[in-house]
Amino acid sequence: MTQGRPLLNRRLTEFGTTIFAEMSALAVRTGSINLGQGFPDTDGPEEIREAAVRALRAGHGNQYPPGPGVPELRSAVAEHQRRRYGLEYDPDAEVLVTTGATEAIAASLLALLEPGDEVIALEPYYDSYAACIAMAGGTRVPVTLRPHEGAYRLDLDELRAAVTPRTRLILLNTPHNPTGTVLTRDELAAVAALACERDLLVVTDEVYEHLVFEGEHIPLASFPGMRERTVTISSAGKTFSFTGWKVGWITASPELVTAVRSAKQFLTYVSGGPLQYAVAEALRLPDSFFDALRTDLRAKRDLLGAGLAEAGFEVYEPAGTYFVTTDIRPLGDEKDGLAFCRALPERCGVVAVPNAVFYDHREQGAPFVRFAFCKRTEVLTEAVTRLKSLRAA
Ligand SMILES: Cc1ncc(COP(=O)(O)O)c(C=O)c1O
Q1: What separation in Å is there between the alpha carbon of 207 and the centre of ligand 1?
Q2: pLDDT of residue 302
Q3: Strand partners, 68
Q4: Is the CB of 320 under 6 A from ligand 1?
């Protein structure tokens, strides 16, 4: 405190330490299996790691790379969007490389919002959304995804009702963390129609675009009228299992890229120079790489999901992402996910994350707990054994 004033400004006081830091520290202290934070416990392809080493040794990107990102990566992003989705982006004017998706989210919101603008976000939401909306002086308006017949779904009427004259943008996330929901073509078409009708921008976080086990990922930008009003965000971390590299990107119209770049240049200016060359190679991996990734993760999802069900949790089977959401109420007296997660490491040596922290309406998320399955099979098998001991205890 100085001058009798708290140091942290009012915009950020509600955001203490992220739950991931708290739970990961708990995992280390108790020697637990960490199924809290979404990072794989093995590195991505050796050839991509070697590409990064080669770039470092060759001096590619060791000094400030160009502000919008190295041309090789911008071209690879544009090629990827064309190859996977038939979307055409000019690598020079319509692609911007960022420090992970996290910076892309921050820069987009800082660039596009005026103080007081409303932002609709799907609740439960990835925790940086609320903090970035707050930093930009915006007001978040959550639209809650609710469990329905074994999966979480978006209520389109609720979404529509959330739009007001002050709404500036919709912050979408599909495939969705933490619920694993993949928005369907019909749902996306409805979001697109609403954005066009009410003249809204959309920032869409598609970092799990390649981790879809049921259905397909369809970029919102591919719907009629959306290309010019959508900032599409993705990143290398999840797709290539290098979450520590923090190389992300946006694709959008030249006007939107210019706006987002104006904010981004004063956040980090640039980062990950040599890694950008490696990610360019990664994006050009053949389809078989992406297929194998999906097959591997689907098996892990099934292993952990079945184990959690046997352990007594109600399981919402995710169609995508790294995560499975469970309801702890069938376990017995449990109904407070936060208390459950804080006690779980001591009880059985496993760390999970309470979904309540991803809600404004915390009561809506109270009994739900998220587990990550992007771990080695033997780690998941051991976690399941430990979780089953909850019943016996
Ligand atoms: C929905 C979502 N967006 C963004 C990120 C962050 O991505 P990056 O590590 O590329 O900054 C994550 C990471 O967990 C995420 O789940």
Answers
A1: 6
A2: 98
A3: none
A4: no
